[in-house]
Specification:
CATH class: Alpha Beta
Shape: globular
Order of helices and strands: EHEEHEH
Strand order of the largest sheet: 2-3-1-4
CATH topology: Alpha-Beta Plaits
CATH superfamily: ACT domain
Number of strands: 4
Helix content: 25-40%
Length: about 90
């Protein structure tokens, strides 16, 4: 499953410090695909992949003191349209 995570930084300096010290802190089975940050630095959009949503929640818990999250399950365009053809 793919998830588009929208991050709103409450403490961007603290987020940067933790990331430099510990990296993304991903549990095994959760993979980072790509990310984009608004030019203002206010929000980050991360595409994550896992078959186990509990792993996603565990990862979010490692950052939720610094960042607010919006979780959006997503499909690739190809997967979406393929499902429409068969459904």
């Amino acid at each position: 499953m793919l998830f588009m995570i929208v991050e709103r930084f409450r403490d961007i300096e603290g987020t940067v410090e933790r990331f430099k010290a510990k990296g993304r802190m991903l549990p095994d089975g959760l993979s980072y695909q790509a990310s984009w940050i608004e030019p203002s630095g206010a929000r980050c959009f991360q595409l994550m992949e896992t078959e186990n949503e509990e792993l996603l929640q565990a990862w979010l818990g490692r950052w939720d003191d610094l960042v607010d999250f919006e979780i959006n399950p997503v499909l690739t365009s190809a997967d979406f349209w393929a499902a429409r053809k068969t459904g």
